[in-house]
Amino acid sequence: EEQLVQSGAEVKKPGEPLKISCQASGYSFRSYWIGWVRQMPGKGLEWMGVIFPGDSDTKYSPSFQGQVTISADKSISTAYLEWAGLKASDTAIYYCVKTGVAASSRPRHWGQGTLVTVSS
Amino acid sequence: DIQMTQSPSSLSAAVGDRVTITCQASQDIGNYISWYQQKPGKVPKLLIYDTFNLQTGVPSGFSGSGSGTDFTFTITSLQPEDIATYYCLQYESFPLTFGGGTKVEIK
Q1: pLDDT digit string (tens) for A20-79?
Q2: Other CB atoms closer than 10 Å to residue A16's CB: what's the count?
Q3: Do residues A112 and A93 lie in contact, with contact meaning Cβ atoms separated by under 8 Å?
Q4: How many whole angstroms separate alpha carbon A71 and alpha carbon B91?
Q5: pLDDT, tens digit, for every residue of B44-87?
Q6: Across-strand partners of B37?
Q7: Would you say A77 and A29 are in contact if contact means Cβ atoms under 8 Å apart?
């Protein structure tokens, strides 16, 4: 059974760094793109970017380029979403999604989401 | 980026009513659109992919149609358990883009 298990909720202060994770199981992690989706409180879904774990090819949506870093460690089937310095506006639920064999493939499976709260 | 204009942003309908939501793409996306249902505090759930294909296990009361730039999602007979926010998603090209969402309520 394919599974994406995300790390737990985080409460951080503005300016602090953060790295959240998404561990995959039940399929060949290196062979499918993994994406990240943001949902701010009470708002809609936003596509942030994707990574191909096989070669770490990464693509970002323009709104998120330079704001976050997506990475993956294929040895432990885990993808990451990282901030160098959080802002209050980064408060949101972040979902990882398994997509397909192309960067524009549709989501096939969703993680349970990680709530990130940034507050002083 | 392809923009997805979803309407209405919210609607209120009676149990048993037919409900229709539309998404208009800013350019031709072929049939590369899917529809999601999200209930409060839950992960989005795939209902329809490739315009009209029903995801396994999804009730037949949900359907999708359209092509090119104009797409429709329909609930044939609204039920209380259908109360949720619905989103379209285009995957014709990267970056994928979601519609703004439609909150469906019972009148």
Answers
A1: 999 999 999 999 999 999 999 999 999 999 999 999 999 999 999 999 999 999 999 999
A2: 13
A3: no
A4: 22
A5: 999 999 999 999 999 999 999 999 999 999 999 999 999 999 99
A6: B45, B86
A7: yes
Q: Do B1 and A49 touch (CB under 8 A)?
A: no
List CB contacts (< 8 A) between B43 and chain A.
Answer: 95, 110-113
**Out of A35, A104, A110, closest to residue B43 by CB:** A110
Phi, psi of B32 (to 5 degrees): -85, 70
SS3 B91: coil
Burial of A32 from C-beta contacts in 10 A (0-12 / 13-18 / 19+)? buried
Picking from A116, A107, A104, A111, the residue whose alpha carbon sits closest to that of residue A19 is A116
* Nearest partner of B75 among B86, B61, B87, B65, judged by Cα: B61
Contact (Cβ atoms closer than 8 angstroms) between residue A92 and residue A113 = no
Provide the token pair at A61: 């949506």
One-letter amino acid at B76 equals T
What residues of A are in contact with residue B91 (Cβ under 8 Å)?
104-106
* The pair of three-digit structure tokens given for residue B83, joined into one six-digit string: 């109360």
